[in-house]
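Re: the pair you flagged

First of the two:
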Amino acid sequence: MSVKPEHYDVIKRPVITEKSTLAGENNAVVFKVERSATKPQIKEAVEAVFGVKVKAVNTTITKGKAKRFRGRPGERSDIKKAYVTLEEGNTIDVQSGL
């Protein structure tokens, strides 16, 4: 499978948090993805960019919080995260970067 420019639009960046590190123990990787991306698009993009086999994709949308920016009220944007479970024997090292 060849890498298309659209694949880089689907996957924005890996999410490196304590929770995503725990998910890594179950052969899963967490990515911040485009809000309009579907599970099949995310699977295709991860397989093409990283050269791994994807077992499952679970997505979640985190609603933006109301915060204050320089004393003025504002709101963070909504974020879509994809929990990508890999087949046995496949790994992605997100700690080192691409």
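Second of the two:
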Amino acid sequence: MEELRLIKTRRKGKNFMQSMLIPSETMVADELRAARPGHLSDIAEVRRALAAKYEADACCPVTVQRHLIRISQDDSAPFWRVVDPDRPFARRIAGGPDHIREKLAAER
């Protein structure tokens, strides 16, 4: 079954509007599974890919981070492929930076 996409329109700057994708956890998990094993990508790449896939101008960064935290708790998708263990956000992930490093090393 295909995910229903939620796209909201918001102001960007003084005279422009922007469509913002609010992704589901499943959408984020699918993008994580598509990431190259053993290689550290960037969360921004995931957001850009989701926005392009669902024809939005941008993808909500807060929603993606919330989903990454939840996915790390369930260990339902390879979150370690996009969370840099040296960034502060890694401390919010289940297991922390060391867990991310171990998972990346195991895939190499």
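The two ends are 33 Å apart (CA to CA).

-B.
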